[in-house]
Amino acid sequence: MRRLRMLAVLLVVALLSVGPAFAQETIKIGMLAPLTGFAAADGFSVYESVKIAVDKVNAEGGVLGKKVELVCYDDAADPKQSVPLAYKLIEQDKVVGFVAGSYSLPTRAVSAIFNDEEIPLVSAYALHPDITIGDYTFRNGFLGTVEGKGAAHVAVELLKAKKIALIVSDNDFGTTLSQGFDEYVKGVDGVQIVSTQRYPMSEKDFKPYLSKMQATNPDVLFFSGYYFQMGPALKQAREMGITIQFIGEEGADSPKTAEIAGSAAEGLIIVTNLNRDDERPFVQEFLATYRKLHSIEPDMVGASAYDGFMLIVDAIKKAGTTDGPAVAKALSETKNYDGLTGLIAGFDADGEVVKPIQIQTVKDGLFRYYGVITDPKLITPSK
Question: Which candidate, 355, 380, 287, places its Cα nearest to that of 141?
Fold first, then answer.
């Protein structure tokens, strides 16, 4: 009996000692995405795109001799849900990196948490400046003011507009975009913003805004909104007989925009960070894989999240460890990284990405190449 008790004790000790080893069989990278709710189409794109990245990394041997595991939860683009889920990823799942695959509000709510825990965070496409707040927070998408300046550049330099109207969403997204747009226009003689209107996130009827905009007789309209706002706005404008050139941004970078707007989407120009006509083989491979798997067009949120995941993996490889400070240091030292969303020159001291702004236009219902912005004055972030 004494021997049996001793064997039982030894067995328990052995099981306890190997438990953590089993827990660390994979390298876990966490992610939050809006898989349900108003932004579910974006969440689907984020999740499915990063799964392609995970499969690619593991097929090539994983990282540091281990498979990579994605741990993803649905935050429904809601900060009240993102905060407890962030703690779950940290305390229960023991993730060593985090891809912020959601919108600005939920991403702002969790960025300080991951920074305090010294777990590197890469924001895929949320653009509010308060997301990058410390040594462990980075952004692969554009800072809102950078994208706003890019849209203004399109209006002024490419479309030669002198009178510009703005209709923007009344949230973090619209505010930071319009700040960048205003900043650019103020430095150009002979160009003026003749009208600025803000609409609530719940808005579905854009005709009053469009009517007021039309009365100012602008040359172009910068309409800031997500696909579920841009699509109806385009359709309603054409129903009203308004043919003004719309300029949008990454929020409209979704196949849903043309699906909702139909033929009214033709000619829409947006600033974003995915060029579907990029000739680099691995970009076309990703686009083809996504189309084959889902029979829909890929978009910038998915490509941006893919890059966010791959940037963390690349930093772990360079650091030779999953230790947070070492991985964050490797991220900060990223140079000339070949991403789906362009050649990433690196991150500035605030963790903001420096890369070209892509300009896309809708042709036959699909986004196609229109141009690219490489001017350092425009693509270099400034808070």
Answer: 355
**Torsion-angle region of 5 (φ positive above 0: left; ψ -120 to 50: alpha; else: beta):** alpha
- 158 and 235 both lie in a single domain: yes
Residues 173 and 224 in one domain: yes
d(CA 274, CA 140): 12
The pTM (predicted TM-score) of the whole model is 0.91
Q: Give Dmax over CA atoms of the chain in angstroms.
A: 96
User: Do 106 and 157 fall into the same domain?
Assistant: no
- Contact (CB, 8 A) for 377 and 357: no
Strands 192-199 and 220-224: unpaired
Q: Which DSSP string corresponds to 48-85?
A: HHHHHHHHHHHHTT-BTTBEEEEEEEE-TT-HHHHHHH
| Residues 254, 365 within the same domain | yes
pLDDT tens for each residue of 4-21: 444 444 443 343 333 433
pLDDT value of position 382: 79
At position 267, the amino acid (one-letter code) is: G
Q: For residue range 90-140, list pLDDT tens digits in order.
A: 999 999 999 999 999 999 999 999 999 999 999 999 989 999 999 999 999
Q: What are phi and psi of 64, to 5 degrees?
A: 55, 35
CATH number for the domain spanning 332: value is 3.40.50.2300
Claim to verify: residue 81 and residue 101 sit in the same structural domain: yes
Verify that 226 and 324 share a domain, yes or no: no
For residue 307, is it within any domain?
yes
What are 338's two structure tokens? Answer: 């070949």
Residue 132 counted as domain residue:
yes
Is the domain of 230 the same as that of 371? yes
What does the alpha-carbon distance between residue 338 and residue 340 come to, in Å, rounded to a whole number?
7
Specify whether 63 is located in the same domain as 168. no
